[in-house]
TrEMBL record:
Coiled-coil stretches noted in the UniProt entry, renumbered to this chain: none
Subcellular compartments: Membrane
Xref: PANTHER family: CLARIN, CLARIN-1
Keywords: Membrane, Transmembrane, Transmembrane helix
Record's bilayer topology term: Multi-pass membrane protein
The organism's taxonomic lineage, starting at the top: Eukaryota, Metazoa, Chordata, Craniata, Vertebrata
TM regions (residue ranges): 12-34, 92-125, 137-156, 189-209
Family statement drawn from the similarity comment of this UniProt entry: Belongs to the clarin family.
Organism: Zoarces viviparus
InterPro entries: Clarin
Protein name: Clarin 1
Amino acid sequence: MPSRQKQLVFSVSGVLGFSCVLTAAVATGLPLWITGAVLCRTGAELVNATGPELEKFLGELNYGLFSGGRVKQCGLGGRTTRFSFFPDLLSVIPVVLHVSVIFFCGVVILFSSVVTGFFFFNAFGRPYETLQGPMGLYLWTFISWLCSCLVMILFASEVKLHHLSNRISNFNEENFVFHTYTERYDRSFWLFFLVFLLHGLNFLLIRLAGIQFPFQESKDLDLSGGAADLMY
């Protein structure tokens, strides 16, 4: 590929990498990872609420990695409360798993910044080492791609396997029992899915620039030198 076209491809990849940095940073901070409805089961069972009557006992819940909010409906109007994971919910959430999600979010932001710099470095500079040269782009892009995938997997495990929404809904509740009625992944989760796709697209752009995948090229063995050495 001509150098001008290669510069264009690397520049586009750099812009995509920078978009990943901004998208991951915004998604990490927003309390919009999960949105759902919470049923006040205690109140609904007291009056045998069914059908449209359940709406009087359905509240709202939304949260991210650091904070969230909930509206509790128990038939007497809504109660709006705000909460933060640190330090309020440390006793009810799977701390190690939750911190791992935040950690990998930080890794995605960090290495997306690194790969953005190296894309522009390869577009307009002269790389002189493997980790800074074209082959290194696969490494930094793969790390960012893998970590963005881990963020989604770990967070989904926390929500589904550890019933995170139920734990949050029943936090500090003594008289009522709440149950997750509906829940769905909100914008921040899908923004990380977008980051995952953009890093995958960067893989294709690197290959489009004419750079072979690592370990794809077989090195020719220099047998002549070895044969000459055996003669001495």
